[in-house]
Amino acid sequence: MQKIIINKLGPIDHAELECTKWMVFIGAQSTGKSTVAKAIFFFRMIIKESIFDLAATRLDTVNPAYKKPFISSITSTIHERFIDVFGLPDALDKNMSLEFYYDNQTYIKITLSTGKFINIEFSV
Predict the structure, then answer these.
(1) pLDDT per residue over 54-79, tens digit each?
(2) I need a labelling partner for 64 at 20 to 30 A (CA). Which of 19, 21, 22, 80 fits?
(3) Which of 50, 49, 47, 70 minimizes the C-alpha distance to 58?
(4) At a CB cut-off of 8 Å and minimum separation 6, what does 44 contact?
(5) Largest alpha-carbon pair distance within the chain?
(6) What are phi and psi of 37, to 5 degrees?
(7) How deeply is 17 buried, as exposed, middle or buried, from its count of CB atoms within 10 A (0-12, 13-18, 19+)?
């Protein structure tokens, strides 16, 4: 089962949700419905389909000499996509974190470090 954990992103202080095929968000204006939807979209569509599948299928066949640059390239692309969707890290809470679990063993975690640098960790 897919799961997302959001901390300190926009109006969301903390949310941990199982992501099903169909989800309905109901609530007052400016409570984070769009923020949650955008985060799920980010991980499911932008990352999963364009980057993560590529990494999962290629890392086993990549020459060890090219593995580090390959992972660096994927991390760089995730970084760019994150800024495209959520904006520059300067505008985000220093304790912001996003985690998305595609299954029990496959995940991506995004956090901010001191100086608000974007840190990306993934399970591949």
Answers:
(1) 666 665 565 666 667 777 777 888 88
(2) 80
(3) 70
(4) 2, 19, 100
(5) 52
(6) -60, -40
(7) middle
Smallest CA-to-CA distance from 50 within 20, 84, 16 is with 84
67 to 49, 90, 97, 106: CA distances (angstroms): 20, 31, 26, 18
**Within 10 Å of residue 59's Cβ, how many Cβ atoms?**
13
**Paired tokens of 3:** 């799961």
Helix (H) or strand (E) run with residue 18 in it: strand 12-19
Contact status, residue 82 vs residue 117, Cβ threshold 8 Å: no
Strands 12-19 and 107-112 come out as: unpaired
Planar angle of CA 45, 47, 48, nearest 5 degrees: 70
Residue tagged 């199982």 (tokens):
18
**Cα 89 to chain centroid, rounded:** 14
pTM over 0.85: no
pLDDT digits over 32-54, tens only?
999 999 999 999 887 766 666 66
Residue type, 97: S
Which amino acid would we find at residue 67?
Answer: K
